[in-house]
Every structure is written in C-alpha cells, then in structure tokens.
C-alpha cells in the first residue's frame, strides 16, 4: 500500500489489486484522531495560566528598563513599598540563590544589577492586592540611569567594549571541508539580511506561583520544558530542586522554547517573600520585550560552479545577532553553519560563523533556527547561478540535490532517507494556478485589491522554488532521553509522560500509540508536572521521536504482560498473538478474545525510556557527526507583484515534504500549513523593528502578523513516506522544515516577477518596485 497526498493535502491509500477492502480503523496510528482538548479550546473552557486563581491571590508586575544600554546608578523602592495594597518589592538584592540564569549559559541576571543590556530587561518586581496597584507600584520605583551608547550593529560587536563579563563573542565556528584553493568556472556572490521574527504566541506569558508549607514553591505556567524551568528556579531561589515544582498549564501556542524565565523567576520570589499565591499575566508589550526572538542574521556568500551548473565550492560568512545574552545562540549557529550549503552536494565548503552579543533584544530558539536564515541565502545564490548560466531554476537544483549516502559539509554521512530530487520534481510538476485575467471574478485578489491604488497592468506573476532541511532533536552530544509510563486498569489506559503538548499534537499521538499497541480505545494522558521523570524540551520534533518512542516501549511491555498468560495457556509464544481493533487473535485462529475480556480484573503498568543514538560536538574545523536525523522539504511559491507600489500577494503555495511516516493525516496537514503561514510572515511582514536598540511598536498593530487573507490555500502534493529506520515509527519532524523553506521560495518568486535581487527578509515594498520606463 502506497501513501500519497491529494491536492488538498489529505493522505489517501491505494490498495493492491485483489486486496479485500477493510473498513477503516477508528483508532491507532495512521488515523486522523481528533485532539481531546479541541472542544475545550473552541468553547473557551481550556485552562490556560492566565485563567488560574487561588485563595489569597496577589498580583505581580515587573518594572522593565526603558533603555537598551545603561548603568544603574541607584534603585529607590520606598515609594512603591509605601503604597497601600503593596505586599512586596524585590530587586537583585533579594535573589537568595544564583543571580543569573540561562538555557545554555548562565549569563542573564534575574534582575539587572549594575548594567542594563537590552530594552525591557527586568529591574524589579512588585506584588500587590490588585493588578492595577502592582503596575502603579512598579512605575513608582525610582531608578537613576546613566545612559550608555548601545551596540546595535553586530559587526561592531567585534571591536566594541565588552558588553558582558564573558565578552561579546558567544561562539565562533570556522568550518573547513575540502580544498580551499579550488575555484569554479562560474562564481556568484551575494549579501543577505534576515530580520528579527517574533514567535508571537496566541497567548502572552502568564503564571501563578504558590508557596508550599515546606518552604518551597509551586509554579503553574505554560512551560515547554518544565524540568529545565524547575532547575533554573531552584538555583535562583536557593532551594533544592525537590522543593520546587513546575506544573504545566495549557500552552497558548509555542514556536519552541518561547517562555520567558524572567517572568517565572520573579513570580516565585514574590510568592516566597509574601507567603501568598502570586499571579502575573504579561501584557503583549511585556511579551514582546521579554521572550527571545529569531536571530537577525547577516550572510555573505560566494558560490562556485562549473559550466554545467554543478556546485564546486561554497564560501560563506554568517553573523548572528544574539542580542544581550547567549541563550541558545551556540546551537543556532551550529545549525546555520552546518546547513549553510543546503540540501545540495558541495565537495568543498568553507563556512565561517559567529554569534555575538549586542544591546538588541534577546535572540533564542524559534522554529527552524539557523536553518531558515541560511536557506534564504543559499537559495538566492542558486537563483543567481541559474540566471548566470541561463538554466531553469529547477534544473540547476536538480543537478546538485543531495541523496542518502552523501556528505554534509560537517563530514557527517546522510544515513537517513533524503528524497530531495523526488520532492523537487513533485512541486515542479504540480499544475500552476490560473491567471487573474482568466477569471475576472478574481480581480479583487490582485495586490492592493480591486479598489486599491495599484494598476492591474502593473501586476507581474512570479514562480519561485526552494529546498530546505532541518535537523531533528538536539545536536552536538546532547542527551535526548525521555521517560514514559503506561498504566492499564480494565478498559482504560493512562499515559504518564512529561512531554508538553504545545500544539504539535503529542497528547493525540500518545493516545494513538497505546491504541495501536494495546487495542484499547479509551486512553488518557495525565497532566504534567516535575514530579514525573523528565522528557526534555518540546522542540525539533523531539516528542514525536523520543517521547513517542518511550510511550511505545512502555506500551509494548504492558502488551507482553497482557499476552503472556494467554500464550502460556495455549502453549505458544506471545509473538504468535496479535492485537487489532480491540481483539486478540492467534496466528492459527484458535484463540480469539477481546482485549477488554483479557484485562478484566487486572492492573498492568510499565515504564520505559527512549534514547536515540549519540552525537558529537563539532570540532575546531566544524567537523563531526552532530545530528541524529534530517528532514527535507520542497516549496513552490506563486506570487503576484504590483511592480509600481511593491505590493506582494502570495497566490499559491505548493509543498512536498519528507515525513518518514504519516501518523495522523489531519494533524500532519495542519502542521505543514501552519509552518507555511509562519514562513510567509517571515518573508513579507514580520520584523520586530528597533531604533538604536529600542523596540518600536511592541504590539500586534506595529508587528504585522499575516492574516487569513494573506495565506493562500496550501497544496500538499506529496508526502514521501520513506521511513527512517532509527526513528520510532519511522516518522520525521514536520513543523520546522516548511517554516525554513517557505521564505526562500517566496523571495525566489518575487525575484522571478521583478528581476530584482531580493536579498532581505522580510521583503520591503521598495525591493519589489521596478522602473517601467
């Protein structure tokens, strides 16, 4: 049976001739099982952190710095402390434990002490009886600043005075692969800039901290990595980890590790100080200022090719703006440098990458980090090569695509399925949408609309292609273990796993896995807290692979417990028994019973771990087997551009993706569509703008997210189900790679329509204007 995708993206299957048609299963893997929380979310009853309440509740507010770089001369909290209704004010002097924290490097203070390093950095926090009182008290804290000149250009960071005791350089990777003296017959160069995309979650950060009788604290928040958050908090509070508990509430959208520890840590400090539960619901402005953003990136490229368009050498310099603190910049840089050549065979590559501190807003993990920035650049280079050689943009890509067995510039062999040529061919062969002139009713869809300022005669259509790749799980030696427990009591199974549901569908997948292995229809996933064993962060497809693998192993152990008594009774091994659609049958048909009958009066459980094969850090020349697995995507974008006013409308997005195995067709389609939407935002509208380090318009009017009118139908024309043998179920991460590939495809389409270079994302209107004279 071959899995394919129709034009609407629904996965179908074609049975072999003569195969009896079986009624479709309603549970297990491969079924579009609906999420259990969909009704609660659509009806508004789903429990988000902003909805929580506790007896004796106090409200928190955080005072944030108005300057991107300043020396703190003094902090006077007296006026705030004396305000009626104020219960506590905390600053850097009130942090009993570690004064700094960080995901990878502990370089970020809980509260600024001597220096402010970015606009919006926390200075103090207040707890009061009413949220308005808390905000007024925070505003009443008198801080005297000596304003300093900010370093906002990452190129200046190399020569500027150190902004941090650790210096301005976060990481430097000089990747060297092959012969540096090789020169191609054809050479193209390019300079590319990528803007600061914000995760812009549906709901802003919120949390509730509740003091415990043992002197500890419980923090209720939309964490995507609760155990890491617990350890950060315990270190800050000067407590043992077992005295701090993080309880995960509903996550209102996440694009990776999007939560702001600078919100959670003040909450816990205030709860411990006051002895009362304390709640904070950030405003949208505070959300923009507090959490990490996609790294703005400057990229210089030189591609060498022979006269037939075969790549010979790629040279590149990549500069990431980390903002004030390191966060996950080292990981982002490793991905950017490693994938700087894209899913193409490049025999010689010399890539130099830097991540530097500035006084700009903090950068961190956002879906497709590192890979998205370089994709826009190397695909721009491929279009330049095609134009210089007079080749079709698809043809030059076809001559260079990667396949299984090829080498990355890091020297790592691609051992997973890499059907890049198949993906590109699928989007190339898909029918193109009709032109507006063929359907007069569609004229209003032109850039600017029917009543807009543009002239329909000035509209040009462009078609662009892009190929992208991402890595799955962590990299460079990170231990990616996850633990899960499956309990069965009568006809009900329960999954206990600390893998956070961030919208990626893990809770649905966990139910499907247990249904598939045990034939039990009613499966519940327990709420998550740090009393459970850790499962790691919800990013890079980790939970599908690692946590899903742990659930499967635990379920299989329970399956063995269930089948062993039956197998013993009938004198056969458990391998000769099968479970399907709630029934247990033997290979010869002698045994036939239901799972419910076999479970009657029993309580079975098992705990298991899943740990992928180890990786290694990149060495001093950027070489090493740093990645567990890779996923690929091809995107064709069709755009209409008004070349007089620079307006761009995305007409069609066609996607072919390497997914390994389809586990939930509807869920997979939604993830791909969401990734394309986020990619269109990065291509055309999303850029958190700053002026000398100060964030301009930190709200959803100044930050332009794409709407439903900006996103066309996404046609998924092919899902390649070539299973990765080292991955549980053979499935690959699905969300990040369309985010990575879409901006490059849109930029290529605008280049095709205008003939302009389009080397900056998001694309400015002036970059799409053409002189018609």
TrEMBL record:
Annotated coiled-coil segments of the chain: none
SUPFAM superfamilies per UniProt: CO dehydrogenase molybdoprotein N-domain-like (SSF54665), Molybdenum cofactor-binding domain (SSF56003)
Identification of the protein by name: Dehydrogenase
Region annotation (Disordered) ranges: 1-36
Superkingdom, natural source: Bacteria
Bias (Low complexity) ranges: 7-20
Organism of derivation: Streptomyces iranensis
Molecular function GO terms recorded: iron ion binding; oxidoreductase activity
Annotated Aldehyde oxidase/xanthine dehydrogenase a/b hammerhead domain residues: 43-149
């Amino acid at each position: 049976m071959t899995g394919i995708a129709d034009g609407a993206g629904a996965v179908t299957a074609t049975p072999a001739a003569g195969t009896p048609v079986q009624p479709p299963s309603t549970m297990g893997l491969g079924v579009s099982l609906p999420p259990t929380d969909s009704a609660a979310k659509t009806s508004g009853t789903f429990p988000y952190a902003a909805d929580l309440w506790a007896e004796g509740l106090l409200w928190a507010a955080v005072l944030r710095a108005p300057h991107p770089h300043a020396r703190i001369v003094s902090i006077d909290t007296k006026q705030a402390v004396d305000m009626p209704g104020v219960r506590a004010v905390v600053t850097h002097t009130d942090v009993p434990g570690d004064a700094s924290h960080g995901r990878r490097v502990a370089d970020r203070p809980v509260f600024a002490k001597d220096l402010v390093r970015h606009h919006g950095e926390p200075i103090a926090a207040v707890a009061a009886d009413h949220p308005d009182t808390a905000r007024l008290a925070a505003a009443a804290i008198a801080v005297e600043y000596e304003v300093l000149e900010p370093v906002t250009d990452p190129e200046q960071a190399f020569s500027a005075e150190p902004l941090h005791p650790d210096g301005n350089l976060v990481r430097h990777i000089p990747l060297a692969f092959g012969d540096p003296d090789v020169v191609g017959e054809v050479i193209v160069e390019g300079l590319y800039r990528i803007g600061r995309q914000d995760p812009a979650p549906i709901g802003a950060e919120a949390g509730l901290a509740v003091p415990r009788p043992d002197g500890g604290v419980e923090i209720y928040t939309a964490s995507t990595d609760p155990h890491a958050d617990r350890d950060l908090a315990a270190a800050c509070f000067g407590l043992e980890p077992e005295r701090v508990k993080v309880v995960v509430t509903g996550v209102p959208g996440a694009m990776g590790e999007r939560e702001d520890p600078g919100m959670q840590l003040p909450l816990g400090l205030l709860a411990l100080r006051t002895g009362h539960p304390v709640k904070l619901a950030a405003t949208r402005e505070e959300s923009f200022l507090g959490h990490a953003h996609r790294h703005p990136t400057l990229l210089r490229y030189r591609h060498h090719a022979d006269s037939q368009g075969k790549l010979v050498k790629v040279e590149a310099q990549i500069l990431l703006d980390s903002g004030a603190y390191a966060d996950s910049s080292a990981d982002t840089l490793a991905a950017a440098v490693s994938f700087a050549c894209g899913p193409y065979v490049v025999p010689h590559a010399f890539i130099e990458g830097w991540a530097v501190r500035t006084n700009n807003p903090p950068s961190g993990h956002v879906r497709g980090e590192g890979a998205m920035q370089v994709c826009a650049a190397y695909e721009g280079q491929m279009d330049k090569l095609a134009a210089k050689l007079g080749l079709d943009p698809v043809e030059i890509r076809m001559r260079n695509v990667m396949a299984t067995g090829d080498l990355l510039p890091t020297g790592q062999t691609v051992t997973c399925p890499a059907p890049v040529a198949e993906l590109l061919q699928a989007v190339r062969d898909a029918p193109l949408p009709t032109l507006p002139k063929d359907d007069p009713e569609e004229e209003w869809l032109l850039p600017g609309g029917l009543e807009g300022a543009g002239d329909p005669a000035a509209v040009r259509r462009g078609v662009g292609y892009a190929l992208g790749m991402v890595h799955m799980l962590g990299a460079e030696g990170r231990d990616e273990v996850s633990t899960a427990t499956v309990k069965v009591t009568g006809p009900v199974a329960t999954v206990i796993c600390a893998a956070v549901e961030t919208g990626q569908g893990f809770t649905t997948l966990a139910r499907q896995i247990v249904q598939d292995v045990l034939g039990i229809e009613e499966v519940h996933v327990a709420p998550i807290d740090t009393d459970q064993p850790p499962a790691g962060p919800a990013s890079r497809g980790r939970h599908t692979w690692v946590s899903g693998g742990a659930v499967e192993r635990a379920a299989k152990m329970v399956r063995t417990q269930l089948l062993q008594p039956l197998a013993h009774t009938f004198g056969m091994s458990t391998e000769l028994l099968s479970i399907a659609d709630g029934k247990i049958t033997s290979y010869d048909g002698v045994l036939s019973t239901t799972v419910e009958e076999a479970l009657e009066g029993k309580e079975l459980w098992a705990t298991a771990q899943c740990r992928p094969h180890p990786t290694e850090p990149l060495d001093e020349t950027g070489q090493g087997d740093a990645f567990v697995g890779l996923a690929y995507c091809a995107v064709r974008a069709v755009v209409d551009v008004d070349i007089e006013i620079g307006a761009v409308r995305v007409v069609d997005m066609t996607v072919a993706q390497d997914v390994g195995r389809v586990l939930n067709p509807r869920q997979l389609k939604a993830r791909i569509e969401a990734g394309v939407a986020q990619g269109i935002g990065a291509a055309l509208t999303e850029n958190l703008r700053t002026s000398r380090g100060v964030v301009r318009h930190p709200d959803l009017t100044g930050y332009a997210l794409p709407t439903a009118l900006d996103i066309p139908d996404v046609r998924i024309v092919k899902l390649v189900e070539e299973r990765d043998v080292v991955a549980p179920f053979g499935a690959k991460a699905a969300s990040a790679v369309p985010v990575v590939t879409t901006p490059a495809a849109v930029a290529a389409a605008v280049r095709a329509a205008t003939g302009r270079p389009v080397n900056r994302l998001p694309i400015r209107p002036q970059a799409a204007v053409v002189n018609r004279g």
